[in-house]
Amino acid sequence: MVWFAAACAVISIVAVQALSYQNTFSYLKFEDESIRSVHGIEIELKIPHGFKKTSILNHQPKFHEHPFNVSTAAIYTDDIIIMMHAESVTDHSGFLNYSYLDSIQLAGIGFTTQERCVVISDELLKEARDLGFFQGEGFDFYPAIYMKQFFKTTQDGNYEVVLTYGERVCNCEVMNLDDKFETEFSQRLLQKVNIKYTYTGDYVD
User: Fold this and answer.
1) What domains sit in the chain, N to C, each tagged with a CATH number?
2) Are strands 195-197 and 144-153 parallel, antiparallel or unpaired?
3) Fewer CB within 10 A of the end CB, N or C, for the chain?
4) Which 3 state secondary structure label does DSSP give 199?
5) Which residues of the chain are modeled with pLDDT < 50?
6) DSSP assignment of 101-113, as one string?
7) Which pairing describes strands 195-197 and 43-46: parallel, antiparallel, or unpaired?
């Protein structure tokens, strides 16, 4: 994608070509106190106290001419959103590759990561199907969102889970401030993002 510099169907900041909206798959499941992926990378995200849930969006976009199945959902408060995307490349091309990103451990699980601040506009919410969906479900992204993303991809490059922790900010100048914002942002992220590997046999292809 534009600011991923490569693969991925996550928070797309360009228009995508939709293949179909009559979908028969869902790679995410809500439990009583968590949401988990069920498509080969089984990660469970606990829902912190006071967070609301969106419904699950299943869609089939096309990125860089590769067809995807994408399930996405989020949990949120007034100012914080945690998004989960579970995706597969349905042409099995191995398109997903984030080796150019930094590596990081989160709850003992290895990810690649990046962070970015995005100024929100009406045009962006129309183009980015996931952001527009979450806006409609109740989270207000305006005027800007500061996000850190965590990518977990299978070795064959065909499946991934992406966790995105975001906080609404007044503007993107926060990225140019001293280390205080980054430190406090990271502390809140670690407090709110509680994940673990799970496997229940609910594999969905």
Assistant:
1) 50-194 (3.40.1410)
2) unpaired
3) C
4) coil
5) 1-22
6) SEEEEETTEEEEE
7) antiparallel
